[in-house]
Amino acid sequence: MRLPLRSFCIFRSVIARGQAVDVQRRGLSGAAMRLVQFRRRGEGASIRVGVEQGEGHSVVDLKAFDPSMPSTMRELLELGDKGLECAQRALASGKCVVDRADIQLLSPVTGPEKVVCVGMNYRDHCLEQNAPIPKEPIIFNKFPSAITGPYDDIILPSESQEVDWEVELAFVIGRRGKHIKEEDALSYVAGFTVANDVSARDWQMKRNGKQWLLGKTFDSFCPLGPALVTTDTVTDPHNLSIRCLVNGDTVQNSNTDQIIFKTAALVAWVSKFVTLIPGDVFLTGTPPGVGAFRKPPIFLKKGDVVECQIEQLGSIINKVV
User: Fold this and answer.
1) Which residues pair with 34 in a beta bridge?
2) What is the per-residue pLDDT across 277-303, written as a single tens digit (0 to 9) for each?
3) By CB neighbour count within 10 A (0-12 exposed, 13-18 middle, 19+ buried), where does 255 fall?
4) Taking phi first (over 0 means left), then psi (-120 to 50 degrees means alpha), and beta for anything else, what does residue 232 get?
5) Res 15 pLDDT > 70
6) Measured in Å, how far apart are the chain's first and last C-alpha atoms?
7) Using only C-alpha atoms, what is the Rg of the chain?
8) Any stretches that span the bilayer, and where are they (predicted)?
9) Where are the domains of the chain?
10) Rounded to whole angstroms, how far apart are CA atoms 192 and 198?
11) Residue 284 CA to chain centroid, in angstroms?
12) CB 206 within 8 A of CB 292
């Protein structure tokens, strides 16, 4: 089941105007855009990259505008400023526009080299568990095969009876780097998006030696989207409303100002250990309200609909099957 995109009036994009932008904050070309990956309906499995004319609006097909442009977001990011500047020109042209009804929206990034995740990274989530505030980022990962689209189904695995939700702010790396200084780190970020770090708590907390990987990386356990919102489109990624709803009921409701290790700190920390490349995805942690810590615990079941919302970025809606 794929659900249509909905417009959420409570979350409106706000772009700072008339203010100087700190060059260290800017990502790549400094372009304010909402980049998407999509398929044209009726044209098979080929992936296209586009630029939204506005949240939930029609999409400019980048490759139709310029046939030399690549077909995937990762390849576009690998072009650096050249790719994003072409996307800006395409958006400004008003040409090669595809109606929203004629496309299937995909995850904004598919096939990244890395999906880096951060545990216990919201102060209010730590308080929920009576857990101490971490002194350094708690890093784990998902396999890229867990990624699914913003309106695709979450597949409930028969191996788990305790599948849970986690709305998260995600960001995507835009250029290659190692040993990145924190003061330079935001210039390596292409943009932000919405994620659901779906988690099988029995495998995460009770089985497999309590290693988190298997419980986090079942197929479809990383819905992502709806767009890659470039850094200059977001006024402050660490002051955004963040919510999760299950069957229309709000289960998580917080703000990204609760994040302990913010974007720049995470880029600097992880790049000490591994080389970051364009397309790498970071999930930055979840606020309180997950099912596992409710009394009694609540877990997802077939037929549930999970909606994750972040101010200025949009919403992803996934049915559990």
Assistant:
1) 229
2) 999 999 999 999 999 999 999 999 999
3) middle
4) alpha
5) no
6) 9
7) 19
8) none
9) 34-106, 115-320
10) 18
11) 9
12) no
Whether residue 177 contacts residue 170, with contact meaning beta carbons closer than 8 Å, is answered with no
Q: Two tokens at 321?
A: 């099957």
Q: Are strands 138-142 and 115-119 parallel, antiparallel or unpaired?
A: antiparallel
Angle in degrees, CA 239, 245, 250, rounded to 5: 80
Check if the beta carbon of residue 188 is closer than 8 Å to that of residue 180.
yes
Neighbours of 272 (CB within 10 A): 9
Let me know if 9 is exposed, middle or buried by CB neighbors in 10 A (0-12, 13-18, 19+). exposed
> What digits encode the pLDDT tens for the residues 43-87?
878 999 999 999 999 999 999 999 999 999 999 999 999 999 999
Biggest alpha carbon–alpha carbon distance for the chain? 55
Return the number of other C-beta atoms located less than 10 Å from residue 136's C-beta. Answer: 9
Question: Average pLDDT of the chain?
Answer: 91
What is the token pair recorded at 45? 């499995």
Architecture of domain 115-320: Alpha-Beta Complex (3.90)
Q: How many residues does the chain have?
A: 321
Q: Mind listing the pLDDT tens digit for each residue in 240-262?
A: 999 999 999 999 999 999 999 99
